[in-house]
Design goal:
The protein is 19% helix and 34% strand. The chain is an alpha+beta fold.
């Protein structure tokens, strides 16, 4: 079996130094659709180095995505076909505001391996700290199709009861045709997002958008719409990737807001509101 759960969980964590600066932050922000309109003062906070602030979801690509999802698939006990891999969910905990420029140590390990029957789920945890202490913790839930069924722990359910009542705010965010090509420059080079032939091998009609790009677009919408553009108010951000997005589509982002948290649901407008992100919560001050 390509996944040896015991070996994966027992493996020593991998640590390495990551660095980033304003150019990495600006490229990430452009990759998730910032900068439209280009001269809007609210957008310049994401694109102009003299007034730059960092959207917390940048943590998913800081250091060019290192150690990253693909790198984690080469951990001891894990040997899988990349075409069978899907990013199932993501959780981010922010310990303090992300700096525009930084050098930090990223420590990655397989935190859990679950048997979902028709698939295995790997929880890849990356903890990042600099000389001043912890910065953020990322958990990526990775589905590997066809690798379950060994009788292991099924793990917790990520499903939440749907929000009740009408959303407090609904916005739409159009995606560029080249959105995935731009976003992948931040470090996720999976050919699923660029190569039509590879996408077909993976079962898709054409390349799909990175789930983490949709993740970033959505967090920016919440921050800009409900948090007064203040990125430092975000405490944590969790989602489940419920469906694919194709570059060029429009995201409909529905938000149910409370003082401490915002529930979010994201759908693809052109495909009859097909679910894209579900069980999504942004915790904030």
């Amino acid at each position: 079996m390509p996944i040896d759960a015991a070996k994966a969980l027992a493996a020593e964590p991998r640590s390495g130094e990551i660095t980033w600066d304003h150019k990495d932050v600006q490229l990430y922000h452009l990759g998730i659709g910032a900068g439209v309109p280009a001269t809007d003062p609210d957008e310049l906070r994401y694109t102009l180095e003299s007034r730059l602030h960092v959207l917390p979801s940048f943590a998913t690509v800081a250091g060019a995505g290192s150690p990253g999802v693909i790198g984690g698939l080469s951990m001891p006990g894990v040997d899988v076909d990349l075409a069978k891999v899907l990013h199932g969910g993501q959780s981010l905990t922010v310990h303090r505001p992300l700096p525009v420029k930084g050098t930090a140590t990223a420590t990655a390990r397989i935190a859990a391996v679950y048997d979902k029957g028709k698939a295995a789920v790997l929880v890849m945890r990356t903890e990042v700290a600099d000389t001043q202490g912890p910065l953020w913790t990322n958990d990526a839930q990775i589905f590997v199709r066809g690798e379950g069924g060994w009788g292991g722990d099924r793990g917790p359910s990520a499903r939440l009861d749907p929000p009740t009542g009408d959303p407090d705010r609904t916005v739409e965010r159009p995606l560029r045709e080249d959105q995935a090509l731009l976003y992948r420059l931040s470090g996720d080079w999976n050919p699923l997002h660029a190569d039509p032939e590879f996408a077909k091998l993976a079962g898709f009609e054409r390349p799909i958008l990175h789930g983490l790009c949709t993740y970033g677009v959505t967090l920016k919408a919440v921050v800009d719409t409900l948090l007064g553009g203040d990125v430092t108010r975000v405490r944590s951000y969790t989602t489940r990737f419920a469906g694919v997005v194709y570059p060029g589509e429009t995201l409909r982002i529905r938000m149910w807001h409370t003082p401490e948290a915002t529930r979010v649901a994201v759908t693809a407008v052109e495909r009859a509101d097909a679910p894209v992100l579900a069980d999504t919560i942004v915790e904030h001050s």
